[in-house]
Each structure stands twice: as C-alpha cells, then as structure tokens.
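B., you asked whether I could sanity-check this one before it goes into the benchmark set. Here's the sequence:
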Amino acid sequence: MVVVVMMDLKEKLNKFWSQQEKCQLALVGIAAEAAPLKTRPAASAAAQKSSVPLKFSNETERLQYINSIRKSPVGAQIKRVLDLLRETRHALTPEQINKASFVDVKANKIVFDSLRKNIKVNYDGECFSYKSKHEINGKHELLLLIRKAPEGIAVGDLKDAYPFVMEDLQDLKAAGDVWLLSNLECQEDTVYANDPRVVMKVDDDIKQLFRGIDLPRDMIDIEKDLLKNGMKPATNTAERKKVAQVQGIKPRQQQKKKREFSKRAKLTNVHLPELFNFPGL
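And here's what the prediction gave me:
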C-alpha cells in the first residue's frame, strides 16, 4: 500500500516539474521578444536547452511587470509613452518605445493610432516625438518669446516647453527681466516681459501727485466726471436707482473688492515698481 502511494506521489511530482519547465520556456520566449537584439541569441539558446533545470528568479517578476503594463488600459499606456517622450525629448521608434517603456506600440493598433493623432505628439512616419505648445529651447529663446507677447503668457503653457523651463523662468524673474503675476480667479500665473526700453526715472513730486489723486468711489460721481471730460459712460446709475425705487427693489450692499489684474492685462505704470510688489512673488 505504501509503495503504491509513493509511486503516485512521485508521478504527481514529475508532472508538476514538467509543467514548471513548460511555464519557464514560455516566459523565456516572452523575454526574448522584449529583450534587445544583442541578447536574443542567448535567450534562444536557453530555450533550446530544455534539459537544463530552470529556476525561478527576478526575471519572472520583470516579465510579470511587462505583462501587467501591456494589459493595462489604453489611456495608461498612452500616458506612459507621453511621459517618456516628454522626459527624453528624442524622436523614438516604436521598437525603442517598447524597449524603454514596455508599451508595444506596434502591436497595439489603438495605442498607435491614438499617439499618431495626439496633439502633443509628432509622428513622421517612423518616429514619435513630443510636441510642446511653444517650440523653444533655453533661457534666451524663452525671454524672446515672452517679449513678443505684450499681453502676457500663461505659465501653464510654458511648463512643457523644455526641461528646467520653470527654473529658467525664476532666474529671469530674479534678474528683473520678467514679471510673474498671479490671478486669483483662475489660479494661474501669467508672465510679462519687463521691457528695459521703458525704464525711466520719475521725480518724487510726480509720484506724490499720482498717489494723491482721490478717485471717486460712487458710480454716479464717476459718470459725472466722464461726462465732464466729454466721454459717454456705459452705465446710467442714477436712472437705474430711480427705476429700482419705483419697483421697490432694495439696493444691494456692495462689498469693496480688491482690485486685481486680469489674466491678460497689459502692464502699465512700470515706472512705479512698488505697485507690483505682491506677497509671495
């Protein structure tokens, strides 16, 4: 009875090891496809020597990792390729992308077509490369681009221009070549050129005169001043208040709002730099 049990166990054990060898041969085949060309002969030789005992190693974990990437959602694979193209800034073939990111672009038609049509990707028929909104490279080209845009450029549009662009932007700000202004409404910074041609010295009495002007706070007074200077106001506050009184509408208590720069405001009064000393900038 004991002999029969031992023979049964030995047969099951041999069957188990046979299955393990088949699995290892399949994994080696996948590794040969994903490995560089120079390592493929070694992988083929390992596949032919089936008589050599195979052992589990870190290679198994690597192949499982590759398989998990290729089975991940299409969006995740596209993002992985975009991150690779943005970081390297090189034109890569599908084979090079596969080697670096384990995303088989050539075998996955959906990923291939999505990358080819992506607005952030250039495809010349052979290679894929990253396409930023502004094609610049370096601090000098960055400054020239900002100077060509008097209405300012959103910092978000510059973040992917080239690596270390944000460091160059801070260097330009520290050197006084640009202004960085925050917009609280859209939570986005805008960069403006500090044109050296408009830098001038203003006498203190003129500065004091500018600061001493008391602007009217009531809209009716503002409209009167506009009419006095030959300009037609776009609003008629007095008429609107009369209509509101007839209809019994109570005037709303308007809270004084802090004046802010719009997202694309054109800088003026650059001769008064204290106007632009915002906290945190």
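One thing to flag: The chain is about 50% helix and 5% strand. Otherwise nothing jumped out at me.
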